[in-house]
Amino acid sequence: MAKGPLTRPAMVKPEPVQGETKTRLSNVKVNRNRTTSENPKTIRMTPAEKVMCTELVDEIQDLTTKTITDSTVLRAALYLAKEVGPEKMLEMIKEHL
């Protein structure tokens, strides 16, 4: 048996460190293009095309801290292709493939 009623010590917030500003943490929802739930798509490329893709990935990776993969580059190319239109894409296919 307790001798008297139990009391909790008062909660004391620590003082802010000198020079810091008070900021609130907040969560910002970011809609990302998640591809982890999709089945992978096999893409056939010649050895020269694989080298071109790897070189492009390396060049882009040097410009950012975001992880860039071959798949990222190919997905970005789809958006570029959509912007230029099917006529320009057909021209590129006839010229290079």
Q: Overall mean pLDDT score?
A: 84
SS content category: mainly alpha
Extended strand count: 0
Low-confidence stretches: none
Rough outline: elongated
Amount of helix: 40-55%
Taking Cα atoms only, what radius of gyration do you get, to the nearest Å? 27 Å
Task: State the distance separating the first and last CA atoms.
Answer: 87 Å
Model description:
The protein has 97 residues and is mainly α. The protein has a domain of 40 residues. It is 42% helix and 0% strand. The chain is built from three helices and no strands. The longest helix is centred in the middle third of the chain and has 15 residues. It is elongated and about 90 Å long. 0% of the residues are buried. The model has no long low-confidence stretch (mean pLDDT 84).
